């Protein structure tokens, strides 16, 4: 998993409430078990018409937000079914950080397992960041996971809280498999010892 330390990038404003995982990546795109190739279908029903043409008014179809790496979203982002394809699609599009006042628990947990930083802020802070992101002339935000801050275009800084263990996993680029592999020497030692003491197992 790619490490997350600092990110300066374009933020896209998507202040819609209760965006669920079916809106993030509709069910017809869940046939694959690959993590790549889903970005083109991210927010499919909002991005395209029935003929597959881009809808020009959707934020991710417009410059400069086509190159967004940060998403500033409405309350309760990622609710609905527990599909891991949702963070896969966000990451494949290029989104590495989502900022909201609240997230659905399963989506929130899945973000950390896929190298996406979900940041919780207050409603006032989120509204200020939505306004920053909506400014096409300068929609960049700077995320510093080490300092746990968001730097706004006007120079103001917003601090955020994060579970220390999850923060460290992102800094180190460790998902569940990576965490297990860090204990490989101890696991191999245990297996070798057990094979000697219990050869029938």
Give the SSE map.
Blueprint (H helix, E strand, L loop, with lengths): L5 E9 L6 H4 L19 H4 L22 E4 L11 H9 L3 E4 L4 H9 L3 E4 L2 H12 L5 E5 L4 E3 L5 E3 L4 H9 L3 H6 L2 H14 L4
Parallel strand pairs: 1-2, 2-3, 3-4
Antiparallel strand pairs: 1-5, 5-6, 6-7
How much helix is in the residues?
A: 25-40%
- Superfamily (CATH H level) name: Aconitase, domain 4
At CATH's second level, what is the architecture?
Alpha-Beta Barrel
Lateral arrangement of strands in the main beta sheet = 4-3-2-1-5-6-7
Mean pLDDT: 93
**Shape field:** globular
Proportion of beta-strand residues = 15-25%
- Would you give the CATH topology? Aconitase, domain 4
Low-confidence stretches: none
Give helix and strand order, one letter per element, not per position: EHHEHEHEHEEEHHH
Count of discrete alpha- or pi-helical segments spanning 4 or more residues: 8
Q: What would your notes on this structure say?
A:
- This protein is α/β, with parallel strands linked by helices.
- It has a single domain, classed as Aconitase, domain 4 (Alpha-Beta Barrel), CATH 3.20.19.10.
- It is 33% helix and 16% strand.
- A seven-stranded mixed sheet has the order 4-3-2-1-5-6-7.
- The longest helix is centred in the C-terminal third of the chain and has 14 residues, at 184-197.
- It starts with 5 loop residues before the first strand and ends with a helix.
Notable traits:
201 residues; globular; 7 strands; Aconitase, domain 4; 33% helix; 7-stranded mixed β-sheet; alpha/beta
């Amino acid at each position: 998993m790619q490490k997350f330390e600092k990110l300066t990038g374009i933020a896209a404003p998507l202040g819609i409430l209760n965006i669920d995982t079916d809106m993030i990546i509709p069910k017809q795109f869940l046939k694959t078990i690959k993590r790549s190739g889903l970005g083109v279908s991210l927010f499919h029903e909002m991005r395209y018409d029935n003929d597959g043409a881009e809808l020009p008014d959707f934020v991710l179809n417009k410059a400069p937000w086509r190159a967004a790496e940060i998403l500033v979203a409405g309350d309760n982002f990622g609710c609905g079914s527990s599909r891991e394809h949702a963070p896969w699609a966000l990451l494949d599009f290029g989104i590495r950080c989502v900022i909201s006042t609240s997230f659905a628990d399963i989506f929130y947990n899945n973000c950390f397992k896929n190298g996406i930083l979900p940041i919780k802020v207050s409603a006032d802070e989120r509204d200020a960041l939505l306004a920053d992101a909506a400014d096409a002339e300068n929609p960049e935000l700077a995320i510093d996971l080490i300092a746990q801050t968001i730097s706004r275009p006007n120079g103001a800084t917003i601090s955020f809280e994060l579970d220390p263990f999850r923060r460290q996993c992102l800094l180190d680029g460790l998902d569940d498999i990576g965490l297990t592999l860090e204990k490989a020497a101890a696991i191999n030692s245990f297996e070798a010892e057990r094979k000697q003491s219990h050869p029938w197992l």
